[in-house]
């Protein structure tokens, strides 16, 4: 059975304001509410209700119940921690951003990222989306699908919201959006910009930060940690080289002192030998120093080459079947559809034949390709 309920405009402003303040959500279509109403009867319009108040406690309980059901469903499906299990790249530089282009939080994120004191450069692409309102959920899911289609172009995705109202966060508790984030193939960093309880999207994302600025700082810290590791290796190499030089110099001085105690004739002979030894030692030390220096330069070069885009630029490609990287020809069957990612674009192909061989060097006289670098699996 149904009955018509009416809230007069002069009462609606007060009722909706109190409800929104208590629940952090505006009154919206489909929301379950508990009403205090007066029953009215009109000869023409029949039986009706005049709403006098709305109990926000009932709605808060209903929202909490729905949120709990979403969390339990994600847990039963085994995807609640799926995004958290993804490995963050060593140096995250290519960032897909889901946000409103007019949001203050988006501007804060970009400004903090670009003004980092270390001079790091980041490539960020905005995928515009509504961050609140009835269309927010659909808009953000559409943005995630756009990023998924170009996932090889990015290291991670961020969802940021800030500068707007603190209300209307229910879309971040929906199953559809939360499951899309949980099963997303790239690590997702959330910075929705609220201080209260985490939303379900916060729970399933790889990393949850409080604000868009904090998200930017988290990304910058990843680059800084990697740089400090490389600099630490450089310091260790230099310290070991200096210690080696010091030990060799002390040994040389000791030999010279011992030779000064022998008769002059023997001293002359041994002095010549000592000079030759000194020359050899210096040459050897130069070789060691240059070798250590070259190794350091190689480490620095390798660090720069960790960027998957650079690997693809050198002519490598990544072949996937149904989104998974192909490493072994024996796992393929004729007729399978493959997708190869190149530096510029992708190539689709069909398996017509294959050559599989353990220890490919012995079977075909060709050297097997190198393992994929971190971030390309």
Give the secondary structure arrangement, pairings included:
Layout (H helix, E strand, L loop, with lengths): L3 E3 L2 H15 L10 E9 L3 E10 H21 L17 E6 L4 H11 L8 E6 L7 H14 L6 E5 L14 H8 L5 E4 L8 H5 L2 E2 L3 H48 L4 H42 L2 H6 L4 E4 L2 E2 L11 E5 L4 E5 L9 H5 L13
Parallel strand pairs: 1-3, 4-5, 4-6, 6-7, 7-8
Antiparallel strand pairs: 2-3, 9-10, 9-11, 11-12
Helix pairs in contact: 1-2, 3-7, 4-5, 7-8
Describe this structure as you would to a colleague.
The protein has 377 residues and is of the alpha/beta class. It has four domains: 4-76, no CATH class; 94-221, Rossmann fold; 223-309; 317-354, no CATH class. The chain is built from ten helices and twelve strands. A five-stranded parallel sheet has the order 5-4-6-7-8. It has a four-stranded antiparallel sheet with strand order 10-9-11-12, with no helix packed on it. Helix 6 links the parallel strand 7 (188-191) and strand 8 (207-208). Helix 3 (104-114) runs parallel beside helix 7 (212-259). It is elongated, with a radius of gyration of 33 Å. Residues 360-370 and 372-376 have low confidence and may be disordered.
């Amino acid at each position: 059975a149904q009955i018509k309920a009416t809230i007069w405009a002069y009462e609606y402003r007060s009722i909706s304001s109190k409800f929104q303040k208590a629940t952090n959500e505006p009154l919206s279509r489909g929301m379950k509410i508990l009403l205090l109403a007066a029953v009215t009867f009109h000869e023409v319009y029949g039986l009706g209700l005049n709403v006098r108040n709305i109990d926000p406690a009932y709605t808060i309980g209903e929202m909490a119940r729905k949120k709990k059901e979403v969390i339990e469903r994600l847990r039963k499906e085994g995807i609640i921690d799926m995004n958290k299990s993804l490995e963050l790249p060593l140096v995250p530089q290519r960032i897909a951003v889901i946000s409103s282009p007019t949001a203050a939080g988006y501007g804060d994120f970009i400004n903090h990222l670009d003004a980092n004191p270390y001079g790091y450069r980041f490539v960020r692409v905005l995928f515009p989306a509504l961050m609140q309102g009835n269309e927010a959920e659909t808009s953000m899911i559409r943005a995630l699908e756009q990023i998924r289609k170009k996932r090889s172009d990015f290291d991670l995705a961020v969802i940021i919201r800030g500068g707007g109202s603190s209300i209307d966060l229910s879309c971040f508790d929906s199953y559809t959006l939360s499951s899309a984030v949980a099963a997303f193939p790239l690590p997702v960093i959330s910075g929705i910009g609220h201080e209260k309880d985490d939303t379900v999207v916060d729970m399933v994302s790889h990393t949850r930060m409080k604000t868009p600025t904090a998200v930017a700082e988290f990304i910058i810290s990843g680059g800084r940690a990697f740089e400090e590791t490389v600099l630490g290796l450089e310091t260790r190499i230099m310290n070991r080289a200096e210690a080696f030089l010091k030990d060799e110099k002390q040994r040389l001085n000791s030999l010279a002192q011992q030779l000064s105690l022998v008769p002059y004739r023997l001293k002359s002979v041994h002095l010549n030998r000592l000079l030759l030894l000194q020359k050899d030692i210096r040459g050897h030390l130069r070789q060691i120093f240059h070798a250590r220096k070259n190794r350091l330069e190689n480490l620095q070069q390798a660090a720069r080459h960790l960027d998957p885009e650079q690997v693809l630029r050198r002519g490598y490609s990544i072949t996937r079947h149904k989104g998974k990287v192909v490493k072994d020809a024996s796992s393929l069957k004729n007729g399978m559809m493959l997708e190869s990612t190149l530096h510029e674009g992708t190539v689709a192909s069909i398996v017509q034949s294959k050559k599989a061989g353990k220890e490919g060097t012995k079977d075909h006289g060709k050297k097997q390709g190198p393992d994929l670098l971190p971030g390309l699996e």
